[in-house]
Amino acid sequence: MADTPKPIDCDVLIIGSGPSGAVFARRAAEAGMSVVCLEQGDWVDYAKAISDRPGFELTASRDWQYVPTKRDNSGDFPISVDQSDIIPLYWNGVGGSSISWAANWMRNLPSDFRVRTLDGVADDWPISYEDLMPHYARTEREFVVSGVAGDPMYPGQDELLPPVDLTKAGRLVAAAQNRLGWHWWPGTNAIATVPRNGMEPCQQRTACMWGCVEKAKASTDRTHWPALLGQGVRLVTNARATRIEIDRHGLARGAVYVDRETGKEHLAKAAIVVVAANGVGTPRLLLSSRRPGREDGIANSSGLVGRRLMLHPTAAVVGLFDAPLESYRGAWGQVAYTLQFYETSRDRDFVRGSKWSLQPTGSPAQIARRWPWGDENQLWGESFHEEFARRFGRSVSWGIICEDLPDTENRVELDTTATDDTGMPGVRIHYRTGENSKRMLKFMAERARESLVEAGAYRTVTAPQSRESGWHILGTARMGDNPQDSVVDRHGRAHDIANLYIVDGSVWPTSAGVNPTATIAAFASWSAAHVVANRASQRMAS
Questions:
Q1: What is the rounded distance in angstroms from the CA atom of residue 425 to the CA atom of residue 245?
Q2: pLDDT at residue 372, rounded to an integer
Q3: Which listed residue, 132, 143, 323, 467, has the most CB atoms within 10 A of its CB?
Q4: Judging by DSSP bridges, how do beta strands 265-275 and 500-502 pair with one another?
């Protein structure tokens, strides 16, 4: 950015360039609206994506570190996790957390929108699976999603790119699932398997989360922003939005941001403000947008901004096999998945359920790490070479995502004792894993072990619980029809501010039990369609 940047005065101002921000920008731009996006981080340097070269494993966790408490990237801010069982994981930069995700692409199931009706817990969503179906289909094409359509769990799924290779390990476990009579399906991933939309086919290096050297993994810095910039959308990097400005009529005028390169503060004016900063960044911005008479931030008349944080507790079970499985190759996201234990069953001591992802165990350094093997299965010592040989290329893992029920005490709050480089407060995370989740994880790990033993594993290892597992940050600006118990309406519009929209995972009333990016992107598309259709009657600041 220049010392005196071009003033911003646009139809739509978006804060955050990840999947939800990029999808919203695309829909608005295609409708002829002028769009500007503020991104607090910068573009990633793909010269550091070297998984095709020696030394990759020595630099991966340095250059592509997805744990915010372990890195100091451009755009990061203070986050305190001493009061949390799980550390939220995200990326601040162009593309948001699609930079560091594993690219699992799963739609929410129809039942996920009706858990109160079906199971008597949490809340129903104010929208349905059917509402999002056309938006799922459209975003799947944009994110080059590969897989096999027709899973009976997903009504109306369109054709996808050919799936990633099931691999030797996947075929072995799939056969075991068949013998057990359990559901499984080839993995759906936002990973190209044929050239499409400027993306190239996956080479199966199991390095999806550490910079895709092939340009196969869909991240919005590759799938969306180059085209959007060509269409005239303006993306302002290193621009930290510190507060949303509200006029005397209670409408958003725009956002104040700091050019992090010059330290200068600017006001970006807009008719509509869209927040797409994830389940941590969004409540941080809303709570920081204090004004006289509203010391608890904006859009917070319900008192729920930052509340009901959900982080998807996870588990993993690894099976070791005598036969070589080549499990150092494959898509790191999922070569297959199962939804066998996804719905509530009355014979269990918990409600709701989990999705499992079948994953390779990866490269030599991944095999040598503590997780998922645990201290009792330590690799180092006199038997290093023998134990390494038993694991490398001969092991496969079921990764388990646990549906997280909302709890108002699990929350994101401002931490005024720690500020970022602009003086904006950091955040403190309060999160405790619920008893329902703990019982669910125990049950799922036992069933995953059964699957791997049926597949021929002579030994299984249940991974210790890892705090570094908060990939899915949901629920901190709840969507609902009643302004008294929700922050935004069914289209993501703030109940308190008629021209402020929130479109990321923070609006989720419940967490579902699958990877959320597909539904985050589909909701952003749904919200943008509403904005475009109703722009003539949209109230805006004077």
A1: 17
A2: 79
A3: 143
A4: parallel
User: Tokens 């699957």 — which residue?
Assistant: 451
Strands 265-275 and 354-360: unpaired
pLDDT single digits (tens) 258-279: 999 899 999 999 999 999 999 9
Is the whole model's pTM more than 0.70, yes or no? yes
User: Cα angle at 496 between 90 and 422, to 5 degrees?
Assistant: 40
142, 220 contact by CB (below 8 A): no
Could you tell me what percent of the chain has a pLDDT over 70?
98
Q: How confident is the model at residue 324 (pLDDT cuts 50, 70, 90)?
A: very high
Q: Of 209, 220, 266, 273, whose CA–CA distance to 246 is shortest?
A: 273
Calpha distance 277→262 (Å, rounded): 22
Contact present, 304 and 482 (Cβ < 8 Å): no
pLDDT of residue 375: 60
Residue 3 has pLDDT above 70, yes or no: no
Sequence-ordered alpha helix ranges (H) in 35-114: 56-63
Contact 146, 191 (CB under 8 A): yes
Q: How many CB atoms lie within 10 A of CB 349?
A: 10
For residue 182, what are the CA distances in angstroms to 169, 173, 445? 17, 11, 15
The percent helix, strand, coil of the chain (3-state, each to 5) is 25, 20, 50
- Residue 1's pLDDT band (boundaries 50, 70, 90)? very low
Give 286-300 pLDDT, tens digit per residue: 999 987 667 799 999
Closest listed residue to residue 523, CA positions, set 21, 12, 15: 21
Residue 524 banded pLDDT, cuts 50, 70, 90? very high
Q: Which two tokens stand for residue 468?
A: 């570094």
pLDDT at 172 over 60: yes
Q: Which residues, including other chains, have CB under 8 Å from residue 60's CB and lie 6 or more apart?
A: 51, 207, 210, 211, 365
- For 89, residues 6+ apart whose C-beta sits below 8 A from its C-beta are 66, 67, 68, 97, 100, 468, 469, 470, 471
For residue 37, give the amino acid letter.
Answer: C
As a whole number, the mean pLDDT across the chain is 94
Q: Return the closest-CA partner of residue 82 out of 393, 388, 417, 380.
A: 417
Exposure class string for 436-473: b at 16+ Cβ within 10 A, else e: bbeebbebbbebbbebbebbebeebbbbebbeebbbbb
Q: Is the peptide bond before 372 cis (omega within 30 degrees of 0)?
A: yes
In the chain, what's the furthest Cα-to-Cα distance? 74
